[in-house]
Specification:
The structure is a homohexamer. Chain A contains 10 helices and 8 strands. By secondary structure, chain A is an alpha/beta fold. Chain A has an 8-stranded parallel beta sheet, with helices on both faces. In chain A, α9 links the parallel β7 (237-243) and β8. In chain A, α1 packs across α10 (297-322) and α4 packs parallel to α5. The longest helix of chain A is centred in the last third of the chain and has 26 residues, at 297-322. Chains in contact: A-B, A-C, A-E, A-F, B-C, B-D, B-E, C-D, C-F, D-E, D-F, E-F. Chain A binds chain F through residues 51-53, 159-160, 191-198, 200, 213-215, 218, 248-250, 253-254, 257-262, 292-294, and chain F through 12-15, 17-19, 69-76, 78, 80, 250-251, 264-266, 269, 294-295, 297, 300-301, 304, 307.
Chain lengths: 323, 323, 323, 323, 323, 323
Amino acid sequence: MKRPDSHFRPISGSVLPRFAGPSTFMRLPMVEDPEEVDIALVGLPWDGGTTNRAGARHGPREIRNQSSMMRLVHQASRIAPYDLCRVADLGDVPVNPIDLSDTLERATAFFQRICAAGATPLTAGGDHLGSLPALRAVAAERPVGLVQFDSHSDTNDSYFGEANRFTHGTPFRRGIEEGLLDPKRMIQIGIRGSLYSGSDLDYALEQGVRVIEIEEYFDLGTEAVIAEIHRVIGTGPVYATFDIDVLDPVYAPGTGTPEVGGMSTVEAQRLLRGLRGLDLVGADVMEVSPPFDSGYLTALTGATMLFELLCVTAGAVADRRAR
Amino acid sequence: MKRPDSHFRPISGSVLPRFAGPSTFMRLPMVEDPEEVDIALVGLPWDGGTTNRAGARHGPREIRNQSSMMRLVHQASRIAPYDLCRVADLGDVPVNPIDLSDTLERATAFFQRICAAGATPLTAGGDHLGSLPALRAVAAERPVGLVQFDSHSDTNDSYFGEANRFTHGTPFRRGIEEGLLDPKRMIQIGIRGSLYSGSDLDYALEQGVRVIEIEEYFDLGTEAVIAEIHRVIGTGPVYATFDIDVLDPVYAPGTGTPEVGGMSTVEAQRLLRGLRGLDLVGADVMEVSPPFDSGYLTALTGATMLFELLCVTAGAVADRRAR
Amino acid sequence: MKRPDSHFRPISGSVLPRFAGPSTFMRLPMVEDPEEVDIALVGLPWDGGTTNRAGARHGPREIRNQSSMMRLVHQASRIAPYDLCRVADLGDVPVNPIDLSDTLERATAFFQRICAAGATPLTAGGDHLGSLPALRAVAAERPVGLVQFDSHSDTNDSYFGEANRFTHGTPFRRGIEEGLLDPKRMIQIGIRGSLYSGSDLDYALEQGVRVIEIEEYFDLGTEAVIAEIHRVIGTGPVYATFDIDVLDPVYAPGTGTPEVGGMSTVEAQRLLRGLRGLDLVGADVMEVSPPFDSGYLTALTGATMLFELLCVTAGAVADRRAR
Amino acid sequence: MKRPDSHFRPISGSVLPRFAGPSTFMRLPMVEDPEEVDIALVGLPWDGGTTNRAGARHGPREIRNQSSMMRLVHQASRIAPYDLCRVADLGDVPVNPIDLSDTLERATAFFQRICAAGATPLTAGGDHLGSLPALRAVAAERPVGLVQFDSHSDTNDSYFGEANRFTHGTPFRRGIEEGLLDPKRMIQIGIRGSLYSGSDLDYALEQGVRVIEIEEYFDLGTEAVIAEIHRVIGTGPVYATFDIDVLDPVYAPGTGTPEVGGMSTVEAQRLLRGLRGLDLVGADVMEVSPPFDSGYLTALTGATMLFELLCVTAGAVADRRAR
Amino acid sequence: MKRPDSHFRPISGSVLPRFAGPSTFMRLPMVEDPEEVDIALVGLPWDGGTTNRAGARHGPREIRNQSSMMRLVHQASRIAPYDLCRVADLGDVPVNPIDLSDTLERATAFFQRICAAGATPLTAGGDHLGSLPALRAVAAERPVGLVQFDSHSDTNDSYFGEANRFTHGTPFRRGIEEGLLDPKRMIQIGIRGSLYSGSDLDYALEQGVRVIEIEEYFDLGTEAVIAEIHRVIGTGPVYATFDIDVLDPVYAPGTGTPEVGGMSTVEAQRLLRGLRGLDLVGADVMEVSPPFDSGYLTALTGATMLFELLCVTAGAVADRRAR
Amino acid sequence: MKRPDSHFRPISGSVLPRFAGPSTFMRLPMVEDPEEVDIALVGLPWDGGTTNRAGARHGPREIRNQSSMMRLVHQASRIAPYDLCRVADLGDVPVNPIDLSDTLERATAFFQRICAAGATPLTAGGDHLGSLPALRAVAAERPVGLVQFDSHSDTNDSYFGEANRFTHGTPFRRGIEEGLLDPKRMIQIGIRGSLYSGSDLDYALEQGVRVIEIEEYFDLGTEAVIAEIHRVIGTGPVYATFDIDVLDPVYAPGTGTPEVGGMSTVEAQRLLRGLRGLDLVGADVMEVSPPFDSGYLTALTGATMLFELLCVTAGAVADRRAR
């Protein structure tokens, strides 16, 4: 039974108030079969890779709640994602709160099912290690590029000795090592915060990752950085990951490792809008941690950034379809 | 297509953690057709009858979130409601946030559809005026009794002059006037708070309502009050309404009209368990107002009381089926 | 009995600490008769037109509390409003929390009494529908211009079908229809947030309203926008309305419909200071909703913006007197 | 000009909603001349005697806000205080936030003016040192008895060496030394919390103060303790002081020195109602500290206890008048 | 170098205010060598066994902060623990936030070092799995008894299938299996909350554990339950574990799995005081989770219960010394 | 016994998680003897000079907690302070919470002891009056310059009449009068907020202080203001004081006198980094008031600014050593 396209649209706030009704991403229908959609919005309620303050496991639920404020059309770009694609809430990635390895396996399988169905995953996390299983699915056949908005490079090697190689500080090193990411097509924007040592960024730089520390971002300006993103990524497939801590803590207090002195939401929105034209094969908004939030602000910001990513991803999907 | 009984059970916390997955009442499935269920859990996200602090419109969403902590079997009574009945989340009652009359009409129709299907409604509000449309449905054919846990009698006549006869302070006077409630089979427990005048309770008393002010409750004790409930209500059909403000504000800070000096949750739980044996035809938990809550406590309490009511209502449903 | 001008000055913080004493706007005296003042500070504790999160009914009380931080002289412009005008707190506009029509009537009458006395109203809300009764008073004799700082155009037609034409999303369409506003002398600044459809702004634009979406604001810059305000408004009478949600939610979390990506308070202050020279006949700060605030920040911001408006309005009053 | 008795009544919530209008104690009028009233409600916004967590300076403002929930008639006793007495808000006691001695002088003079006018002071604090200037006024002519609800005896001698003899831990030792209090007619109820040494209570006991530690209170029960209060105090003049920290911290988190394991508000209300019949010449509710409060609960509790004290004080005033 | 006993005493609040100075348990000195002390206060900042809401990793830090309110002598029992024993803060148990097995090893070794030195460990957690490594140390030579205050039995077998046998729901089953606990000398008090199935408690009951569900506790009363504790435990060595969630959530909102309807702090204090006379060889206060707390209340409660346990443990140490 | 330099380094987050272990500044060791260090980090837990909202007494404890997020190397400047200097936490300045004069004496003596040992003090406050005792120590031999980041000039003369000359609004006037500060080498940046009168800044300007109001700061830009700082201060010894309220309240809600419209943390960080090259002889971060904070943001910001100051101060110490 094929449901009509009209099924895949948010409930209107003039039919059911925004505080009412089921709490799904963007007030979209919840569906189980990824074959039905072009873009699969999923939650990844897990923070088992977190070394400091946990809580991102609660991110998806609150991002869903706050996403009820998102309407149908992007105000600045006038992109209407639900006119371009079938989008739905595919529910939460299966996780095991006390078992890191088990969770990585379950999550990888879930993302693989989405990709196998031809859908593009758009994830709300969850700690940043959650990007790794998504990458394992979207990059199963060839390495992809990465646009990473983050205050941390997340390319550490291990933690607490050699044994712990999977934490929210290591996903992109693992991604490079596993051949999921092409470091030459990786760009990290907004890196900041005091360092463990002067060599923290050496691995990334040696691999050829383009690292734009926050000062360089402020000095270059948003438009120049967008150009640099396009230069580094080019036309190949690319994954976008938005760690909410790239924002200054005033915009995103609800996160595990806040770093004072980040970018504003206005700047982040402009950057995300600048991803239009890239061949996005997946994206995520990570590290929203409601227990540390103030007044749902971070969750609202996460939902807004998810909508920004949805619009540019819908554009990419439409572009691929048109090719 | 008839779904198996096994469909109507909460998702296990050992399959999907309690912070994950869709946020429905008790982690039950969401269904649209009341014909499928014996007990219909519904939200009533509306506070348009509120004369002081609004916010109960947000109650159902947060009660759903917190109800994820409810497991399968009642610890004290060992009632297993999902073994007795088919229970599901029927979604939210349709409301109009700025139009009181329109909302009463929409809500009445919604509850009538549930009752027409033979299902028993169990509502999470919303302000206390929301009990009125539920009563219009469950008492359509004959007046019912009422067990009311509340710090306020809610039998005022009007507000701000004659024009405003429907507020959260008037539902049970309207219910009596509309012939929905049999005042001789009404009992109010926990009444307290400073009075507008010494005659505030005269209407209820004159109609024959049994009013147990909080001091009398403390003096009689829980067991005696349970006996009194059964004496007043007898064997006929009865609706139970639990205004969260019957609790002391420490247990329920998130409500619109808190009154210091109320009962504890332990006392309330014992009272609700004491409803077993009554012929419950509907029930509700009202006035949970998340914007005034601290740490989701009131919503958790509301969810717990809803589970208490679910268990005794499931017993009543099973009793009716057995008759 | 005519009270001396010295009566109409804030209590000094060196006589009574700022956390002590009666809580009035700017620590000014409370007076009943608008004949005594040039500028009437009033509260409008009402949010009955709110379609999403209520709470602005509590705005005036908390803005009064926070306005105790406002001293006597504007730091940047050195305007000393109490040297220019008699200003006092005229109390709250009478409202009916559960009756929209009744409230609009009561409020209109209250504002008419102020205007009839020759006083200029400066209002702290309350939801944005509250601007309509003020406009009915100040524009009783001829349409006025409007400078609107807002993330939403508030020129929708109706809500939940045809019946509901008065909500906080419709006041300025009603104002145009009622002949209170001259759309050619209207300017809206800061519009943003996802849209219901691509045609949301069509009505305003067709009427000739100058709409500056937030991106255009950022691109033009504050000085150019101030110039544009003066160009659009010209020398005629004008009302200024500041919806607190024009600010980014970090500056104003306590509001009903926050939209990520707004302007800063620094930008807003510069814009408001730029209103000096306009013939202001009334102004308001709306949509401050304390239940959703964090640490009184939004109320403090609202009080600060009210002081900014007071200074430019005092200038306008002095200008009119000088003419 | 003598104002009619009807002037000295709270604004009705059916005329002006409880969240609207001026924020005064009990929504009573604010008057300046104590000659006009029988009972003077005053705020004492000062915490300069606080050795641990400050913040009680903000108590009066928030107690005023929350007292808007108090109606006209006591629910349990049916005392109607405004039928018995003229009551008004006399504003705040003048204080100097950084000068303890200056504040004690200013406050003493203020209370003396109230007593000289024949009015009975009812104070909302402020830290507990604030009871001392009130005692200096009400006990100017002869020592009075004291009913003290408190988790601390507040009869320490000095702090940080000999120099600091006036802190919120010393007022009742100073009161005894200054001849304001008759220790044989003093009773302290609810004392608890870990001790500095085993001799903390020796001074009070040696003076003849009746000390009921919290365990004795629980063991005796409320009724027996009320009887003990009447036995100790007898028929002479007495001052009642209610330190909000006598309550368990769940009922009063907003205080400077919370002690786990206190009494409930239900118990406190019964105790305060038990003061009817005593010749109350003044009373206070102290140590409400809004910066440490959760959801205004402590302020609401403080306002409720102030209303309880108002009712029994009004009874005492009426009794004195009748003699 | 042997330090004098006077070294092992809290800093006085009359020398350094309670909000100042290093934040250690009870303001005691921090020492590294357990040989120096009789009782070792330790933190266990870890919540890796948590299946629902994490956050107890932050418990020790905040309990230390709040323990600055604890003075020297117990008010009810007049026990002066620092006169009986040398007590100090031994710092935090080493943990690995992302590796459960590694943490159990590190923690076990740490506790073994304490016990080897002859010191008695008193732990502030951390999730309840943290009791297991402590038991492995204190029960290394023979099984011990257990007094468990808890709303959950924590004797589940596994989680998410067979693989996960170590969670905060399993420590006492593991303890029995590992021969650390003598189930015949185990008593659980306060069990409640909805059940997974009617057989949740079967394992414990079959092993001979005495389970007192909350209703039985309320029915028996505190004194009878204390007697029952002594009957079950007898004179042998015993460990006491206090899961903060045994308290009603109003007293302990900051915990991972709150269950409405628990005991009060007054009741818990009486129960803990009733442990005097038992041969306590270790104790803990677990599951304090600051991210979910309101105003530090749960941490203050945790600190208070830790002080209660310290006093009865100091008594036991003195008793052992005297034998 | 001389401890090795390696002793004076933060505990690594890969050895002990950041939420674990003793809470000291930057996770540094706590030492008692200032002879051991080059830079002494100290807390000044006192707010007795505060005229509005108290609470800064709690600043040091929470800044210590949040400083656990600071790693070893400055990200932008790559300064590694612990490679340049021996740094430790010297504990809290002794204070008397209820005695202003006593506190000034105790604090002055404490700072003198640090300076006598040749260490440079770096203070976390505490209200701004606390800068005065530090200045008395560092400027004992000759006046120093001052770089002041602040929204208030803090050069008032007195408060509440002549008697009160020491408040948090007067330290720098007293500093000039006492010959501690050379007004010609003083620069104040960020001054704003409504004024008591148009002459508020006259004293500072007449003394020759360079005052950069916030508008001038925004107009000049950060780089030009850094140049101006260096021009005014020159090569002599200088003290830097950072009042957290120079930041916009969104970045620092937890402060006593917030003023809307301030600078961002990004701007402040750039300014502080611009102090490199000055001969810093002491510095502080003041007015962090946790009771008014949201989610520890202000404390985190304070800790970050303290780390910024630590880096430039370490540079200055190294420069002095190299001379």
